[in-house]
Design brief:
The longest helix has 16 residues. The protein is globular. The protein has one domain: Rossmann fold (3-Layer(aba) Sandwich), CATH 3.40.50. The protein is 30% helix and 22% strand. Helix 1 links the parallel strand 1 and strand 2. The chain has 5 helices and 10 strands, in the order E-H-E-E-H-E-H-E-H-E-E-E-E-H-E. Bound molecules: NADP nicotinamide-adenine-dinucleotide phosphate. NADP nicotinamide-adenine-dinucleotide phosphate binds next to helix 1 and helix 4.
């Protein structure tokens, strides 16, 4: 597939580039910096673009089979910028006539019980709240765009650089926890989950939780 990857220079983004290339996809990786992070591969090109600008998204997405987002707000920007990003991406995809979008979201909106979201639990870290709220708002915006074949894929509660084990679990709209009740996934395995969904289309129009 010819894939446009938004946020390719980021922490999850770099691992997603590797996963996509190893599976034979061609990747256009974008960020504002346009950084290629030293990746030297005939099937990879790094280009600059602003994901809050629908014109940039339309220009960049044209000619691609699908768009994968691993965008995240910078530390010096308000978390709400995520909603501007998803609106611009939706607009840009429509204009580019690309209808497949795999979006990296947040775990905060996942259910931990019948009536309870992770973000509403007592021990949800206060410092994560703004970005978690913005990610939930981004999801709400996405649900209004059912003309696109979108999937909103959330990491586990904790995601860090780690091992590529090749095994993970998913759950629709639910936080995935292991036998000890911990919710964790490595960035490498999360990249696998993104690319699996891109290739298999198992969870179109779904908020998917991931973890072990
Ligand atoms: N447990 C959870 O729910 C959880 C935990 C961690 C992360 N996440 C989500 O995963 C996503 C990615 O996380 P990460 O740690 O990989 O983020 P990151 O390392 O900060 O990477 C963000 C990427 O987005 C790009 N970017 C930011 N603003 C942009 C803009 N306006 N236009 C184009 N590109 C832009 C950055 O490059 P430039 O700055 O050069 O533009 C970078 O490539 C985030 O959405 C985050 O919320 C969820």
């Amino acid at each position: 597939m010819n894939v446009l990857l938004l946020g390719a220079s980021g922490r999850i983004g770099q691992r997603t580039v590797t996963e996509l290339l190893n599976r034979g996809h061609a990747v256009t990786g974008t960020s504002r910096s346009g950084a290629g992070n030293g990746i030297d591969d005939d099937e990879f090109v790094a280009v600059s673009g602003d994901a809050t600008n629908p014109d940039d998204i339309a220009r960049l997405a044209t000619g691609h089979d699908a768009v994968v987002s691993v965008l995240g707000p910078s530390d010096d920007e308000p978390a709400e910028i995520l909603t501007g990003m998803i609106s611009a991406v939706i607009d840009g995809l429509r204009r580019a006539d690309v209808d497949r979008l795999v979006w990296t979201g947040g775990a905060g909106g996942l259910r931990v019980g019948p009536e309870t979201l992770l973000i509403d639990t007592d021990d949800f870290p206060e410092e994560w709240e703004p970005v978690a709220r913005a990610a939930i708002e981004a999801y709400d915006i996405l649900t209004e765009a059912d003309d696109l074949e979108w999937t909103y894929v959330a990491p586990a509660a904790l995601i860090e650089p780690g091992e590529r084990t090749g095994s993970y679990r998913t759950a629709e709209r639910e936080l995935v926890t292991d036998e000890e009740g911990d919710s964790y996934i490595s960035m490498e395995d999360f990249a696998i989950a993104l690319v699996d969904e891109l290739e298999e289309n198992n969870a179109v129009h779904t908020y998917l939780g991931t973890g072990y």
